[in-house]
Design a protein that fits this description.
With 405 residues, the chain is an alpha/beta fold. 42% of the residues lie in helices and 18% in strands. The protein has helices at residues 2-14, 60-73, 81-85, 88-100, 116-127, 142-151, 163-172, 195-204, 259-268, 270-273, 280-293, 296-321, 345-357, 387-402, and strands spanning 31-35, 42-47, 108-113, 132-137, 154-158, 177-183, 208-212, 238-243, 253-258, 329-330, 337-343, 360-361, 364-365, 375-380. Strand 4, helix 6 (142-151) and strand 5 form a beta-alpha-beta unit. The chain binds pyridoxal-5'-phosphate (PLP).
Length: 405
């Protein structure tokens, strides 16, 4: 067995698909100390890969709340939610999130999880079964895909954001239960699902929409409520998943939907029932984070983020326009996630390593995370970045791309 596993990893290595971890030796932020590959030294890098979009992971109010949460509620929760692990901060967090979304998802309840991965498994496995038809965007996140596979539902994959293709698939089936499943903001391209169009389709074909808004929640909308906030038309058949380890700066996730759906997930989802509840101190600190995120401080940070996004995209667009190489293009993003597609895995990894050597952390993204031929570097911005950080990155990229074969 050991030899077979080694052979498989050697094959991944030959295809430039072997993964590597980098050890951070300081807190996350726009700059981070990262150990060299041989661990002999550490260098300061400008980070363009964290999902801490608002910079809240380093906010002192949240640090203080986390410490106070430990003082009040101890370290671990000690048990799963349905045994004795569900504590007052977990309950308060669910109430607060439910109220924030009450005008968008009426008659709702909220359920929290320790990660977005578990939340997605819970939703898909609780609601899906062999009588259910799931219609899933081809670029949905891996955790949705895994949940769908585990659910044993009938599955149709529609082309990315191609809602005519989706409608053709909806016309073809007449299952009792239909779920349209989509990321709100797509994690590797940074583009957005059109929830108005999906709402029309859901109403017309008696379907429900599952929206994983891991990258939209806290980032989009004046209040930071994410993809749902600015939609001109939104149906009531929405099951929303949001994560709390990205813009909210801590960890965890939530699901908000009509109360009967949430009660059913609570009763049946194995990734809710059979796991230890998250640290209560995290829920306690999340209450502080949500107050910042949905108030003026969050608004100020979102405005700053939007202006940095425009600045980065302008720079990348003019760089792309100068490239004769049609394999080099930037993704059609409208979020702080920006992909720069370069073609094959080796080119993406060379670019990522070149940037690393110049002092930038920008991961290369390869299949199976993205489709073959669309390997890329993936840049993410934080409200704490400066225009100067972006200028330095653009200088580095310009040199590397010029020399790229
Ligand atoms: C779109 C999307 N959904 C879900 C997740 C999983 O969330 P978590 O990291 O909290 O497990 C991620 C990434 O982490 C993601 O990008």
């Amino acid at each position: 067995m050991i030899k077979k596993l080694q052979d498989r990893m050697d094959e991944l290595d030959r295809s430039n698909l072997l993964r590597q971890k980098w050890i951070a030796q300081s807190q996350t932020g726009t700059h981070q100390l990262i150990a060299s590959a041989d661990h002999a030294s550490a260098n300061n890098h400008i980070l363009f890969c964290s999902n801490d979009y608002l910079g809240l992971a380093s906010h002192p109010d949240i640090h203080d709340a986390l410490k106070k949460g430990v003082d009040l509620w101890g370290a671990g929760s000690g048990a799963s939610h349905l045994i004795s692990g569900h504590m007052e901060p977990h309950e308060q967090l669910e109430i607060m999130l439910g109220e924030l979304f009450a005008h968008l998802i009426p008659d709702n309840r909220c359920l929290t999880f320790s990660t977005g991965y578990m939340a997605n498994l819970a939703v898909m496995t609780a609601l899906g079964d062999s009588n259910c038809e799931i219609l899933s965007d081809e670029l949905n996140h891996a955790s949705l895909i895994d949940g769908i596979r585990l659910s044993k539902s009938k599955v149709s994959i529609y082309k990315h954001r191609d809602y005519e293709n989706l409608e053709a698939l909806l016309k073809k089936n007449n299952s009792d239960m239909r779920l349209i499943v989509t990321d709100g903001v797509f994690s590797m391209d940074g583009d957005q699902a059109d929830l108005s169009v999906l709402s029309d389709l859901a109403d017309k074909y008696d379907a429900w929409i599952v929206v994983d808004d891991a990258h939209g929640y806290g980032v989009l909308g004046d209040k930071g409520l994410g993809s749902l906030e600015n939609e001109s038309r939104l149906c009531e058949r929405i099951i929303l998943i949001g994560t709390l380890g990205k813009a909210a700066g801590l960890s965890g996730a939530f699901v908000i939907a009509h109360q009967t759906i949430i009660k059913f997930i609570f009763q049946t989802a194995r990734s809710y029932i059979y796991t230890t509840a998250a640290l209560p101190a995290i829920s306690f600190a999340l209450l502080a984070s949500l107050k910042l995120m949905h108030g003026n401080e969050g608004r100020r940070r979102r405005t700053q983020l939007r202006s940095l996004e425009g600045y980065l995209r302008d720079g990348l667009s003019s760089l792309a326009a100068k490239q004769p190489d049609s394999k080099f293009r930037i993704t059609e993003s409208s979020s702080p996630i920006q992909g720069v597609i370069v073609g094959d895995a080796q080119r993406a990894m060379n670019l990522s390593l070149g940037l690393h050597n110049l002092g930038f952390r920008v991961p290369g993204i390869r299949p199976p995370t993205v489709p073959v031929g669309t390997s890329r570097i993936r840049l993410t911005l934080s409200a704490d970045h400066t225009a100067k950080d972006i200028d330095c990155l653009m200088d580095g990229l310009t040199i590397l791309i010029k020399n790229m074969s």
